[in-house]
Amino acid sequence: MTAEQAHDRYLAAIRAGSRREALAVVDDALREGMDARTLYLRVFQPSMHEIGRLWQENRITVADEHLATAITQLAMSRLYEELFGDRPEAGPLLVAACAEHERHELGLRMVCDLLELDGWDTVFLGASVPVEDLVEMVKERRPEVVALSASITPHLARVREAVAAIREAMPDGGPVIAIGGRAFAGDAALAERMGADLTAKDAVEVAERLKERFAA
Amino acid sequence: MAGVSTGARAAAALLDQKEAIARSVTGLLYAEMPWLVDKYGERGRLKCLQDMRYNLEYLAPAVELENVELFVAYARWVDGVLRSRGVPTGELARSFELIASDVAARMRADEAALVSACLEAGVIALRQGGGG
After folding, report:
1. Would you say A95 and A137 are in contact if contact means Cβ atoms under 8 Å apart?
2. Tens of pLDDT along B84-120?
3. pTM for the complete prediction?
4. Nearest to A56 among B61, B62, B80 (CB)
5. Which residues of B touch A59 (CB under 8 A)?
6. Residue B108 CB contacts under 8 Å (≥ 6 apart), including other chains
């Protein structure tokens, strides 16, 4: 099964709302030796972008989109179980959170999983994390990187507040702050205005940039 | 502490007055296009009002950052969403123009100018996109 075939089969499965078929695609792909990175890069991410496009074009409903998202979260969990057993590595620590009110969390979760494949340790906080609580977590865990996500521009103000609050709480030796999500669309100048250190156009690329930055 | 920029003031005003602007612009749009009532029904008017709130929520960060492209990207995206649901580009573009004139009457000239710059760029992008 090529990556393209896996993509087409997976997309058909999540469009049909079939958990079983979606998981079968993942299992088959793994059995045939496809690596996890390829599954994220060529199957999950493009399939979910396609689901978003189908909603935009009024060809599927919000309910269909949520179902596809839930299935992909399940598929990612399945992959996680397969691939991440006990890992002795002590790579960089990443704390990942969606901006307050932001509910699109899948991309950020992909960033976490992709980095874990590379030996990182990640703490995924998911959707809508209040700024104060995020800062507490960051102070306590002292991660090398904080990744913040926003999919729509109305959430940019919350991202900027979070970045500023982290910088203020940790004026010296604070984390590298990466921001991403559709609201940024890879706009490095915008990310810089938000006070962040790094951005990229999608989840896979954010993970790549972070790996490069922390490569020994 | 740096002073608050004109963009930040204008964005805050847009969000503070979001409900009033959204209601006013929806009323003006329906007054100009009375056939919308038959076309979309009473539910359509509520959806229109909600769409105006969204327009303002997306306008605010573009104004705050004085980043016209942020609003243009939204305009193109929402035009695709609306067209696929039977709302023509012309109605969206007109609503942007009505927001600009409503805001001009509410805000200081320098603030309104920033708002207007974003909306005008949005209208131009919509007309170039040519959805009808």
Report:
1. yes
2. 999 999 999 999 999 999 999 999 999 999 999 999 9
3. 0.90
4. B80
5. 84
6. B9
